[in-house]
Specification:
Length: 374
């Protein structure tokens, strides 16, 4: 049994019920600097302890593992603080926003007694798990191309998102595409597109509301992946998804979040028509909850849940394709079994660095740049 600390009561709220219910977690603590928010969330969710800062929590000598869900600019320093204290650390994406930050985390993880995992939601959402199943069953054939887009309007988000370089948040698309291709991104060409309005520039040096990159993968036969990230000046409703095209079949992300995915299957050329016949099927992608402990299975779908101690019921949203309970289970198992997590330091680095280098390519007018190997 382990004790887990959740850091940040924004997105962190979604993870409190999961650690509370996990059969191998005996206590759940919360770190949140905003006093009113901390008290409200700790009380509503029944946290076992709460702290105003990560340092205060680590100084107690308690807590085996920490899940960081603080704003992006704290991820590297807080990861280092957790790992050097001897504990295991899970971090919300991204691992870092600079190549130097990646190196600092991978070096600290290599020297640490605890485990590191980046909590990339897309690698456990049902659409990704279904696409892996199609690939492994041969339904896609040989892969020819991959693409994906994360488009989200960050107007009204906290000020630190103003001027944030979109490609420095590319892991939600890069990770599933590299996972499906079973490949590393070795080079990139990226262009910025559009013009960031002064109100969205903030203190960051990024001039682009949208960035679009083409990655060359290190597969034995040529394969490329196109990734688009957009945070401002784009009237597209939220989407965070990918498409994979093979010579036998393809899968495209639902054009409306939560809608059915589209699967294409090509038949043989019949000599009577031009091109091969291609069947188009809308599929309701199945959950893979059977891989979860009983107590977490229902959390792949939205519903209500009863916090401990007879507290009033709360709504549970199950955002991100039912991925959250899978992430929690994988992190807890990696800590309990003292083994490398599915998204350990090297894989986290290899899905974070491509976006960082892509932004650099955009700043250099689309120059092709090599991506470090981890
Ligand atoms: N799909 C995903 O993987 C996904 C989705 C949403 C957010 N995120 C990531 O999760 C993290 C949190 O996102 P959010 O939307 O809740 O951010 P947020 O800024 O809304 O909230 C973060 C919380 O952390 C608190 N906080 C501020 N400084 C802190 C510090 N030094 N130590 C601890 N807590 C601190 C804030 O008071 C706030 O309650 C971000 O890194 C974001 O990138 C990932």
């Amino acid at each position: 049994m382990i004790e887990v600390l959740v850091v940040g009561a924004g997105f962190g709220r979604d993870f409190l019920p999961l650690y509370e219910r996990h059969p191998e977690v005996s206590a759940v603590g919360l770190v949140e600097p905003d006093g009113a928010r901390r008290r409200a969330i700790a009380d509503a969710f029944g946290a076992d302890a709460d702290y105003a800062s990560l340092d205060d929590a680590l100084a107690t000598g308690r807590w085996d593992a920490v899940h960081l869900l603080s704003p992006v600019r704290f991820h590297v320093d807080q990861t280092l603080a957790v790992l050097t204290s001897g504990r295991s650390c899970a971090s919300a994406v991204p691992m870092a926003t600079t190549l130097d930050g990646i190196d600092r985390v991978t070096d600290a993880a290599a020297a640490a007694a605890g485990r590191y995992m980046m909590m990339e939601t897309t690698l456990y959402q049902r659409e990704y798990l279904h696409a892996l199943h199609l690939r492994d069953s041969g339904a896609l054939g040989r892969l020819t191309y991959l693409s994906g887009a994360h488009m989200q309007d960050l107007d009204g988000f906290p000020p630190y998102w103003m001027g944030y370089a979109p490609m420095q948040y590319a892991t939600h698309i890069v990770a599933p595409l590299l996972g499906l291709a079973d490949a590393r991104a070795e080079a990139v060409v990226c262009f910025g597109s559009g013009e960031l309005l002064p109100a969205h520039r903030g203190e960051g040096g990024n001039p682009y509301p949208l960035e679009s990159a083409l990655f060359r993968l290190d597969t034995p036969s040529p394969l490329s992946a196109q990734v688009t990230l957009s945070f401002f000046e784009n009237a597209r409703a939220y989407t965070e998804g990918f498409n994979v095209y093979g010579d036998r079949g393809a899968i495209e992300w639902p054009s409306i979040e939560g809608g059915p995915a589209v699967v294409y299957t090509a038949g043989p050329q019949d000599g009577a028509h031009r091109g091969r016949p291609v069947a188009r099927d809308e599929v309701e992608v199945p959950d893979r909850a059977e891989h979860l402990p009983d107590a977490l299975r229902r959390f792949t779908r939205a519903g209500r849940y009863a916090p401990p101690g007879g507290r009033p019921e709360l709504e549970y949203h199950a955002w991100h394709g039912g991925s959250h309970p899978h992430l929690v289970h994988e992190f807890v198992r990696a800590v309990v079994d003292d083994r490398e997590a599915a998204l350990g330091p090297a894989r986290a680095a290899s899905v974070t660095a491509p976006g960082i280098v892509a932004h650099e390519s955009a700043l250099q007018g689309g120059r092709m740049l090599e991506i470090p190997r981890y």
